[in-house]
Amino acid sequence: MNKLITVLVALALLLSLSAISVGAYYYHKLNEPVIGEGEVTVVEIRTGQSFNAITQLLLSEGVLETPWIMKAYGRVSGLSAKLKAGEYRLEGPLTIPQVVELFVSGNSISYQITLVEGWTFKDILKELSRHEKLKKVISERAPLDILKAVTDEYQHPEGLFFPDTYTYRKNDTDLSILVRSYNRMQKVLQAEWALRDKSVPLASPYEALILASIVEKETGDASERAQIAGVFVRRINKGMRLQTDPTVIYGLGDKYKGNITRAHLKQYTPYNTYRINGLPPTPIALAGREAIHATLHPDSSKTLYFVAKGNGQHYFSETLKEHVNAVNKYQIYKREKNYRSTK
Protein backbone atom coordinates (compact mmCIF):
# COMPACT_ATOMS: atom_id res chain seq x y z
CA MET A 1 0.00 0.00 0.00
CA ASN A 2 2.80 2.38 0.91
CA LYS A 3 4.48 1.60 -2.39
CA LEU A 4 1.27 2.39 -4.29
CA ILE A 5 0.88 5.66 -2.43
CA THR A 6 4.44 6.55 -3.24
CA VAL A 7 3.85 5.85 -6.93
CA LEU A 8 0.65 7.90 -6.97
CA VAL A 9 2.32 10.80 -5.22
CA ALA A 10 5.18 10.64 -7.69
CA LEU A 11 2.76 10.60 -10.62
CA ALA A 12 0.81 13.52 -9.17
CA LEU A 13 4.02 15.43 -8.64
CA LEU A 14 5.13 14.63 -12.17
CA LEU A 15 1.79 15.75 -13.60
CA SER A 16 1.91 18.92 -11.55
CA LEU A 17 5.41 19.68 -12.73
CA SER A 18 4.35 18.95 -16.31
CA ALA A 19 1.33 21.22 -15.98
CA ILE A 20 3.48 23.94 -14.49
CA SER A 21 6.00 23.51 -17.29
CA VAL A 22 3.30 23.59 -19.96
CA GLY A 23 1.69 26.60 -18.30
CA ALA A 24 5.00 28.40 -18.07
CA TYR A 25 5.74 27.59 -21.71
CA TYR A 26 2.24 28.76 -22.71
CA TYR A 27 2.55 32.10 -20.95
CA HIS A 28 6.09 32.55 -22.25
CA LYS A 29 4.98 31.92 -25.84
CA LEU A 30 1.86 34.00 -25.36
CA ASN A 31 3.90 37.06 -24.51
CA GLU A 32 6.66 36.43 -27.00
CA PRO A 33 6.32 38.41 -30.26
CA VAL A 34 5.27 36.18 -33.15
CA ILE A 35 6.06 39.05 -35.50
CA GLY A 36 9.35 40.73 -34.76
CA GLU A 37 10.34 44.36 -34.78
CA GLY A 38 10.25 45.74 -38.32
CA GLU A 39 8.45 42.70 -39.75
CA VAL A 40 5.20 43.17 -41.67
CA THR A 41 2.72 40.54 -42.82
CA VAL A 42 -0.61 41.11 -44.53
CA VAL A 43 -3.33 38.51 -44.03
CA GLU A 44 -6.97 38.39 -45.03
CA ILE A 45 -9.70 36.88 -42.89
CA ARG A 46 -12.65 35.81 -44.98
CA THR A 47 -16.25 36.13 -43.89
CA GLY A 48 -17.28 33.02 -41.96
CA GLN A 49 -13.73 31.73 -41.55
CA SER A 50 -13.31 29.68 -38.35
CA PHE A 51 -10.78 30.44 -35.63
CA ASN A 52 -8.95 27.20 -36.38
CA ALA A 53 -8.78 28.09 -40.07
CA ILE A 54 -7.40 31.52 -39.18
CA THR A 55 -4.79 29.85 -36.99
CA GLN A 56 -3.79 27.61 -39.89
CA LEU A 57 -3.60 30.67 -42.12
CA LEU A 58 -1.17 32.32 -39.73
CA LEU A 59 0.83 29.10 -39.59
CA SER A 60 1.07 28.97 -43.38
CA GLU A 61 2.11 32.63 -43.49
CA GLY A 62 4.96 31.90 -41.08
CA VAL A 63 3.46 33.97 -38.28
CA LEU A 64 2.95 31.03 -35.90
CA GLU A 65 5.28 28.17 -35.03
CA THR A 66 3.07 26.55 -32.40
CA PRO A 67 -0.59 26.95 -33.44
CA TRP A 68 -1.93 25.30 -30.28
CA ILE A 69 -0.88 28.38 -28.29
CA MET A 70 -3.22 30.59 -30.30
CA LYS A 71 -6.00 28.00 -30.26
CA ALA A 72 -5.72 27.75 -26.49
CA TYR A 73 -5.73 31.52 -26.14
CA GLY A 74 -8.85 31.74 -28.29
CA ARG A 75 -10.68 29.34 -25.98
CA VAL A 76 -9.41 30.83 -22.72
CA SER A 77 -10.05 34.44 -23.75
CA GLY A 78 -13.48 33.75 -25.24
CA LEU A 79 -12.51 35.76 -28.32
CA SER A 80 -12.40 32.95 -30.87
CA ALA A 81 -15.88 33.76 -32.22
CA LYS A 82 -15.41 37.53 -32.26
CA LEU A 83 -12.87 37.97 -35.04
CA LYS A 84 -13.96 40.21 -37.92
CA ALA A 85 -13.37 39.63 -41.59
CA GLY A 86 -10.97 41.94 -43.37
CA GLU A 87 -7.48 42.52 -44.67
CA TYR A 88 -5.04 43.15 -41.82
CA ARG A 89 -1.56 44.57 -41.67
CA LEU A 90 0.44 42.79 -38.96
CA GLU A 91 3.35 45.05 -38.12
CA GLY A 92 5.73 43.87 -35.44
CA PRO A 93 6.39 43.55 -32.67
CA LEU A 94 3.10 41.72 -32.02
CA THR A 95 2.23 38.95 -29.59
CA ILE A 96 -0.57 36.42 -30.10
CA PRO A 97 -2.99 38.37 -27.85
CA GLN A 98 -2.22 41.54 -29.79
CA VAL A 99 -2.84 39.78 -33.11
CA VAL A 100 -6.16 38.41 -31.86
CA GLU A 101 -7.17 41.79 -30.45
CA LEU A 102 -6.43 43.39 -33.83
CA PHE A 103 -8.68 40.85 -35.55
CA VAL A 104 -11.42 41.46 -32.96
CA SER A 105 -11.18 45.25 -33.39
CA GLY A 106 -11.93 45.05 -37.10
CA ASN A 107 -9.24 47.66 -37.70
CA SER A 108 -8.38 46.27 -41.10
CA ILE A 109 -6.37 47.98 -43.81
CA SER A 110 -8.13 51.02 -45.23
CA TYR A 111 -7.76 52.62 -48.63
CA GLN A 112 -8.81 55.98 -50.02
CA ILE A 113 -10.50 57.19 -53.16
CA THR A 114 -10.86 60.84 -54.06
CA LEU A 115 -13.63 62.30 -56.20
CA VAL A 116 -12.48 65.65 -57.56
CA GLU A 117 -14.41 68.88 -58.06
CA GLY A 118 -15.24 69.35 -61.72
CA TRP A 119 -15.30 65.64 -62.55
CA THR A 120 -18.10 64.14 -64.61
CA PHE A 121 -19.91 60.92 -63.80
CA LYS A 122 -17.79 59.25 -66.46
CA ASP A 123 -14.67 60.37 -64.60
CA ILE A 124 -16.05 58.90 -61.36
CA LEU A 125 -16.69 55.51 -62.96
CA LYS A 126 -13.19 55.49 -64.41
CA GLU A 127 -11.68 56.20 -61.00
CA LEU A 128 -13.78 53.52 -59.30
CA SER A 129 -12.63 50.94 -61.85
CA ARG A 130 -9.01 51.82 -61.10
CA HIS A 131 -9.22 50.75 -57.44
CA GLU A 132 -8.48 47.03 -57.37
CA LYS A 133 -9.49 46.55 -53.74
CA LEU A 134 -13.07 47.62 -54.45
CA LYS A 135 -15.51 44.89 -55.34
CA LYS A 136 -16.97 45.78 -58.73
CA VAL A 137 -20.77 45.50 -58.89
CA ILE A 138 -21.61 48.35 -61.27
CA SER A 139 -18.91 48.07 -63.92
CA GLU A 140 -21.22 46.43 -66.47
CA ARG A 141 -24.25 48.60 -65.77
CA ALA A 142 -25.50 51.57 -67.76
CA PRO A 143 -25.34 54.97 -66.00
CA LEU A 144 -29.10 55.12 -65.44
CA ASP A 145 -29.13 51.61 -63.97
CA ILE A 146 -26.35 52.65 -61.61
CA LEU A 147 -28.34 55.71 -60.60
CA LYS A 148 -31.39 53.58 -59.83
CA ALA A 149 -29.25 51.49 -57.48
CA VAL A 150 -28.34 54.69 -55.61
CA THR A 151 -31.57 56.70 -55.65
CA ASP A 152 -34.89 57.03 -57.45
CA GLU A 153 -35.09 60.79 -56.83
CA TYR A 154 -33.33 61.85 -60.04
CA GLN A 155 -33.32 60.94 -63.71
CA HIS A 156 -29.66 61.69 -64.49
CA PRO A 157 -26.53 60.85 -62.46
CA GLU A 158 -24.43 63.87 -63.38
CA GLY A 159 -23.34 66.07 -60.50
CA LEU A 160 -25.16 64.15 -57.76
CA PHE A 161 -22.04 62.95 -55.92
CA PHE A 162 -20.02 64.99 -53.46
CA PRO A 163 -16.35 65.49 -54.31
CA ASP A 164 -14.31 64.37 -51.33
CA THR A 165 -11.91 61.66 -50.15
CA TYR A 166 -13.61 58.45 -49.02
CA THR A 167 -12.06 55.67 -46.97
CA TYR A 168 -12.92 52.07 -47.76
CA ARG A 169 -11.74 48.54 -47.01
CA LYS A 170 -11.04 45.61 -49.28
CA ASN A 171 -14.19 44.15 -50.83
CA ASP A 172 -16.29 47.20 -50.09
CA THR A 173 -18.25 47.77 -53.30
CA ASP A 174 -17.89 50.53 -55.84
CA LEU A 175 -21.61 51.11 -55.38
CA SER A 176 -21.08 51.78 -51.67
CA ILE A 177 -18.76 54.67 -52.54
CA LEU A 178 -21.42 56.18 -54.79
CA VAL A 179 -24.10 55.79 -52.13
CA ARG A 180 -21.93 57.49 -49.53
CA SER A 181 -20.96 60.35 -51.84
CA TYR A 182 -24.58 60.80 -52.95
CA ASN A 183 -25.78 60.96 -49.33
CA ARG A 184 -23.01 63.41 -48.53
CA MET A 185 -24.03 65.64 -51.43
CA GLN A 186 -27.66 65.63 -50.31
CA LYS A 187 -26.66 66.60 -46.79
CA VAL A 188 -24.40 69.45 -47.96
CA LEU A 189 -26.87 70.67 -50.57
CA GLN A 190 -29.81 70.78 -48.17
CA ALA A 191 -27.73 72.54 -45.51
CA GLU A 192 -26.56 75.21 -47.96
CA TRP A 193 -30.04 75.61 -49.43
CA ALA A 194 -31.52 76.23 -45.99
CA LEU A 195 -29.12 79.17 -45.47
CA ARG A 196 -29.33 80.56 -49.01
CA ASP A 197 -29.80 84.17 -50.02
CA LYS A 198 -33.53 84.10 -50.75
CA SER A 199 -33.14 86.62 -53.57
CA VAL A 200 -31.22 84.13 -55.71
CA PRO A 201 -33.51 83.17 -58.65
CA LEU A 202 -33.27 79.41 -58.21
CA ALA A 203 -36.37 77.34 -57.56
CA SER A 204 -34.87 74.24 -55.94
CA PRO A 205 -31.71 72.72 -54.51
CA TYR A 206 -31.28 70.85 -57.79
CA GLU A 207 -31.26 74.10 -59.76
CA ALA A 208 -28.66 75.38 -57.31
CA LEU A 209 -26.59 72.28 -57.98
CA ILE A 210 -26.84 72.82 -61.74
CA LEU A 211 -25.62 76.40 -61.51
CA ALA A 212 -22.98 75.46 -58.92
CA SER A 213 -21.54 72.90 -61.33
CA ILE A 214 -21.12 75.65 -63.94
CA VAL A 215 -19.51 77.93 -61.35
CA GLU A 216 -17.17 75.06 -60.44
CA LYS A 217 -16.09 74.53 -64.05
CA GLU A 218 -15.59 78.25 -64.67
CA THR A 219 -13.57 78.87 -61.51
CA GLY A 220 -9.79 78.82 -61.76
CA ASP A 221 -9.14 81.09 -58.79
CA ALA A 222 -11.15 80.16 -55.70
CA SER A 223 -11.47 83.81 -54.68
CA GLU A 224 -13.60 84.46 -57.78
CA ARG A 225 -16.37 81.93 -57.12
CA ALA A 226 -18.86 84.43 -55.73
CA GLN A 227 -18.09 86.89 -58.54
CA ILE A 228 -18.69 84.25 -61.21
CA ALA A 229 -21.88 83.13 -59.48
CA GLY A 230 -22.98 86.76 -59.31
CA VAL A 231 -22.57 87.20 -63.06
CA PHE A 232 -24.76 84.17 -63.77
CA VAL A 233 -27.40 85.16 -61.22
CA ARG A 234 -27.68 88.67 -62.65
CA ARG A 235 -27.91 87.31 -66.19
CA ILE A 236 -30.74 85.00 -65.12
CA ASN A 237 -32.53 87.91 -63.46
CA LYS A 238 -32.23 89.96 -66.64
CA GLY A 239 -33.35 87.13 -68.92
CA MET A 240 -29.92 86.93 -70.55
CA ARG A 241 -28.49 83.63 -71.69
CA LEU A 242 -25.65 82.29 -69.57
CA GLN A 243 -23.35 81.84 -72.59
CA THR A 244 -20.76 79.76 -70.75
CA ASP A 245 -18.28 77.56 -72.59
CA PRO A 246 -18.21 74.58 -70.16
CA THR A 247 -21.87 73.85 -70.94
CA VAL A 248 -21.06 73.80 -74.66
CA ILE A 249 -18.19 71.41 -74.06
CA TYR A 250 -20.36 69.13 -71.93
CA GLY A 251 -23.09 69.07 -74.55
CA LEU A 252 -20.59 68.08 -77.25
CA GLY A 253 -19.49 65.03 -75.27
CA ASP A 254 -16.86 62.96 -77.07
CA LYS A 255 -17.10 65.25 -80.10
CA TYR A 256 -15.16 67.90 -78.23
CA LYS A 257 -11.48 67.66 -79.13
CA GLY A 258 -10.07 70.45 -77.01
CA ASN A 259 -10.89 73.58 -78.99
CA ILE A 260 -14.25 75.37 -79.11
CA THR A 261 -15.16 76.73 -82.53
CA ARG A 262 -17.78 79.14 -83.81
CA ALA A 263 -19.66 76.11 -85.17
CA HIS A 264 -19.76 74.58 -81.70
CA LEU A 265 -21.39 77.70 -80.29
CA LYS A 266 -24.06 77.57 -82.98
CA GLN A 267 -24.73 73.84 -82.60
CA TYR A 268 -27.85 73.14 -80.58
CA THR A 269 -27.65 70.80 -77.62
CA PRO A 270 -29.81 70.91 -74.48
CA TYR A 271 -26.67 72.12 -72.67
CA ASN A 272 -25.51 74.86 -75.05
CA THR A 273 -26.22 78.01 -73.05
CA TYR A 274 -25.44 80.11 -76.11
CA ARG A 275 -28.57 78.54 -77.65
CA ILE A 276 -30.88 77.86 -74.71
CA ASN A 277 -32.47 80.14 -72.15
CA GLY A 278 -31.86 79.58 -68.47
CA LEU A 279 -30.12 76.58 -66.99
CA PRO A 280 -29.17 73.33 -68.73
CA PRO A 281 -31.25 70.28 -67.72
CA THR A 282 -28.68 68.77 -65.34
CA PRO A 283 -25.41 69.63 -63.64
CA ILE A 284 -22.37 69.31 -65.88
CA ALA A 285 -19.87 68.20 -63.22
CA LEU A 286 -19.26 67.70 -59.52
CA ALA A 287 -19.60 70.91 -57.53
CA GLY A 288 -17.78 71.29 -54.24
CA ARG A 289 -19.27 72.90 -51.17
CA GLU A 290 -17.53 76.20 -51.89
CA ALA A 291 -19.10 76.41 -55.35
CA ILE A 292 -22.54 75.57 -53.95
CA HIS A 293 -22.14 78.19 -51.23
CA ALA A 294 -21.00 80.83 -53.72
CA THR A 295 -23.95 80.06 -55.98
CA LEU A 296 -26.37 80.61 -53.12
CA HIS A 297 -24.49 83.68 -51.84
CA PRO A 298 -23.34 85.48 -55.01
CA ASP A 299 -21.57 88.81 -54.95
CA SER A 300 -23.69 91.94 -55.28
CA SER A 301 -21.76 93.87 -57.90
CA LYS A 302 -23.16 94.82 -61.34
CA THR A 303 -20.91 92.74 -63.58
CA LEU A 304 -22.55 90.74 -66.37
CA TYR A 305 -19.55 89.41 -68.26
CA PHE A 306 -16.19 87.81 -67.61
CA VAL A 307 -13.33 86.52 -69.72
CA ALA A 308 -10.34 84.37 -68.79
CA LYS A 309 -7.06 86.26 -68.57
CA GLY A 310 -4.94 83.16 -69.11
CA ASN A 311 -3.53 83.01 -65.58
CA GLY A 312 -6.44 81.24 -63.90
CA GLN A 313 -8.22 84.52 -63.17
CA HIS A 314 -10.92 86.46 -65.02
CA TYR A 315 -11.61 90.02 -66.01
CA PHE A 316 -15.14 91.06 -65.04
CA SER A 317 -17.13 93.71 -66.92
CA GLU A 318 -20.40 95.55 -66.38
CA THR A 319 -20.98 96.46 -70.02
CA LEU A 320 -20.71 94.65 -73.32
CA LYS A 321 -18.33 97.29 -74.67
CA GLU A 322 -15.96 96.80 -71.76
CA HIS A 323 -16.23 93.04 -72.16
CA VAL A 324 -15.44 93.15 -75.89
CA ASN A 325 -12.33 95.16 -75.15
CA ALA A 326 -11.31 92.61 -72.53
CA VAL A 327 -11.88 89.74 -74.95
CA ASN A 328 -9.75 91.47 -77.57
CA LYS A 329 -7.03 91.92 -74.99
CA TYR A 330 -7.03 88.53 -73.29
CA GLN A 331 -8.59 85.78 -75.30
CA ILE A 332 -9.70 86.40 -78.84
CA TYR A 333 -6.50 85.03 -80.32
CA LYS A 334 -7.40 81.66 -78.81
CA ARG A 335 -10.70 81.38 -80.65
CA GLU A 336 -11.12 80.09 -84.17
CA LYS A 337 -11.84 82.82 -86.72
CA ASN A 338 -11.65 85.46 -84.00
CA TYR A 339 -15.29 85.14 -82.93
CA ARG A 340 -16.41 87.37 -80.12
CA SER A 341 -17.14 86.01 -76.66
CA THR A 342 -20.35 87.45 -75.26
CA LYS A 343 -20.25 85.69 -71.95
Main sheet overview:
2 strands, antiparallel
Fraction of residues in helix: 40-55%
Instruction: Give the SSE string.
Output: HEHHEHEHHEHHHHHHEEH
Radius of gyration: 32 Å
Shape: elongated
Strand residue percentage: 5-15%
Please mark out the parts with pLDDT under 50 across 5 or more consecutive residues, or reply none. 336-342
The pLDDT mean sits at 90
What quaternary form is this?
single chain
Going by helix content, strand content and strand pairing, the class is mainly alpha
DSSP E strands, number: 6
Number of domains: 4
Instruction: Calculate the terminal CA-CA distance, rounded to whole Å.
Output: 114 Å
The tally of helices reads 13
Strand order of the largest sheet: 1-2
GO molecular function: lytic endotransglycosylase activity
InterPro entries: MLTG-like
EC number: 4.2.2.29
Family: Belongs to the transglycosylase MltG family.
Could you walk me through the main structural features you see in this protein, from its secondary elements to its overall organization?
The protein has 343 residues and is mostly helical. The chain has 4 domains: 1-26; 31-105, Dna Ligase, domain 1; 112-182, no CATH class; 195-338, no CATH class. It is 46% helix and 9% strand. The chain has helices at residues 2-30, 51-60, 67-77, 96-105, 121-130, 143-150, 174-194, 205-218, 225-237, 245-252, 262-266, 289-296, 320-330, and strands spanning 40-45, 86-91, 110-114, 165-169, 305-308, 314-317. The strands form 3 sheets. A two-stranded antiparallel sheet has the order 1-2. Strands 3-4 form a two-stranded antiparallel ribbon. α2 (51-60) packs antiparallel against α3 and α8 (205-218) packs across α9. The longest helix is centred in the N-terminal third of the chain and has 29 residues, at 2-30. Residues 336-342 have low confidence and may be disordered. The record marks 218 as: Important for catalytic activity. Its EC number is 4.2.2.29. InterPro entries: MLTG-like. It comes from Alkalimarinus sediminis. Belongs to the transglycosylase MltG family.
